[in-house]
Fold:
Amino acid sequence: MIRAVKGTRDLLPPATAVWNHVEAAARELFRTYNYQEIRTPILEETQLFTRSVGEETDIVMKEMYSFVDRDGSSLTLRPECTASVIRAYIEHRMDQWPGLKKLYYIGPMFRRERPQKGRYRQFSQIGAECIGSESPLVDAEMIELSLEILARCGIEGARLLLNSVGCPACRPAFVAELRSRLAAVKHQLCADCQRRSETNPLRVLDSKLASEQAVIETLPRITDHLCAACREHYTQLQEQLRLRDIPFAENWRLVRGLDYYTRTTFEVTAPGLGAQNAVCGGGRYDGLVELLGGPSVKGIGFAVGTDRLVLALSPKTAAARVDLYIAWIGATYPAAVRLAQQLREKGLRVELPHIEQKLGRSLELAAKLGVRSAVIVGEEELASGQLTVRDLSTGAQKRVAEADLVQHVQAAVPG
Ligand code: HAM
Structure:
């Protein structure tokens, strides 16, 4: 038997209905915030991610699905979408378009991580990018939008974690200090962190290794080393969040697993997810457009992990009910087809069996499928123009004139 590749999953009904609901709710919310959809390719040149996400990140070092194409070029299945959106922004000269560029995307990403609950090798994100401003007001609206997506989908107990990781004016001095402090405690770190403490010291703060936590807690904190402009930005962002009644907790270790961030970084956690409790991550990337060869334009964005969002929802969403089952016999099939057409046109969910069945068998099957009611289309019924409608949960039957059937069934369907 050929199975799905490790770390990938089939989404089956009724779960797919939940996914569709979540994605539709997000799309509707994006519309109200005046965000528009962008669809970028899943395949990109590998260097797009090595340059933006960063050579020293886990994503680039260990997790990318990269391969050499037949013409010798190196391609990668996108591990995230911010880099792709910025590439498209530059390629299509979107800086010349009026106003802020407010874009959203929904789709699969690929990272070769160790699979566990809430962590997959193919996973899906609902993300947004706002390109063209460095204002903390934009950061606050972005955070509000990410939280609103979760709230609209029914997530309860979401927690916002906030940090500022500084900018090219203040971060290098901080990183130098961090590096020298790390050199002194190097012997207490794992091999990975020993390497990172030289190549990319901020990454050490990401470490989840229990044995390293005590020593990491003694390290200097970037929020104590921000330049005046970054400090002001961070203060204003916090004021803006208060203005919007958005509670947050500061977390100085929130440096995030991607190198392009400047100033604001944030994550949202949700209960019930176990170790992989970050349901959303994002931040500002003021140098990214330039780094990828574009103009000096600043931006911020986030991505919600749809798999985790769906996992965090309480499983109260029942399978969608079929509104009507059409039980036909022999010669009445053409009338049943026309009836199904009329009912479906009205938006009802109709099951028209493709094989003839005895009436009893038909009703039994309909009940198993969780259908609300069945209409019996027999020869006698057709001749009299009065169809029999049977409520499958109560067993009650009613004669309904053919002309009134649509209205009758519609009235029986809730909301
Ligand atoms: P990220 O934190 O790497 O950020 O991913 C965002 C979210 O995607 C995570 O919080 C998590 O919910 C979900 N996610 C990540 N990896 C997996 C996985 N292996 N399995 C399941 N879910 C996962 C980014 O990707 C940035 N591009 C976000 C961003 C947009 N920053 C600025 N703009």
About this structure: The first strand starts at residue 36 and ends at 37. Residues 15-32 form the longest helix (18 residues).
